[in-house]
Amino acid sequence: MKPADRPRKTQIEDLKVGMFVQMPGNWTQHSFVRSNFMIKNSDQISKIAKSGFSEVIVNPLKSQIRPEFNKRPKYDPPVKTGHMAEVDLGPPLMPSGFHDFLFDSTVAPKRKASHLYEVCLHVMDKVLKDPNVGNIKQFKEGVSDIVDLLLSDQETATQLFQLTSRDHYTFTHSINVGVMSILLTKALYGESTPHDMRELSAAYFLHDLGKAKISDELLYSTEKYTESERKVMEAHPMDGYELLEEAKLLSVESKIILSQHHEREDGSGYPQGLQGEQIHIYSRICATADVFDALTSRRLFKPSLPLYDALVLMKFDKGLHLNKEVFSAFVQLFKYENSKTAFKS
Prior knowledge:
The chain is mainly alpha-helical and 345 residues long. 47% of the residues lie in helices and 4% in strands. It has two domains: 3-62, no CATH class; 98-341, Hypothetical protein af1432.
């Protein structure tokens, strides 16, 4: 094979319609059905860019146009003149002694879960009100302890699951969805998930981060949205993705949770109208927890549904369009809470 015919890594900005590309990683790291495909339009290039990769592999022999390699001038990195400036983390988010308390075997699971939930509410309130790099970085680090506890202590995890309260506050909803998504990921994959659970869990908690850009007046409005207001609300998944992109703290698949958690299996979701296998499994997990908490939470404009009624609606209402496999695993979580409310899927 001639050197010019060999597959090459190519910068995203150099991609063109007609190139045959291979996406990095596996299917869980991007939103395309296949990892190898021909670029047919500019929208696909934009979609590749939004996946978070800086480069992909282009195969010249399978491309319809001839890629122009080695046209980019050589990049000379700047000479470092000292240590890079560290991010100012600001005041600590997590309370002193939080780690020791979580893993103190003398503390009863119920008390531990209650304290953990209150800490999460306090921290999430701060992060959503001021989603700066320092707060997001500290939150990501604090989530590590929470994830380790939920994966190793089933009794405390069950107690925490029971505490997912039902009200309209965005930060409370974020905690509920985060906890349920972590436990659902554990139920589906155990310890076998190929990705960092700490990274994924931070994204689950931060799935509504983009709502930080929405005014309280609109966020808590009891009136029907106008068309322009609806567009503002439906922009929050990509707004959240972009906030994490700017912070440069979480992995690609973690950021995709934020951008895809309102996508639906039939393509009726937003913001991209993805469907089926185009939606990442972690986004499907988050979407399931998100819908359940929305149905069972007390809102300013609607009463909450009882647990059983919410599960029935999620199973049979075709308008929700959730993934069946993920929903089935979600239902099984409730057998730990109360066997009488277990729902046969």
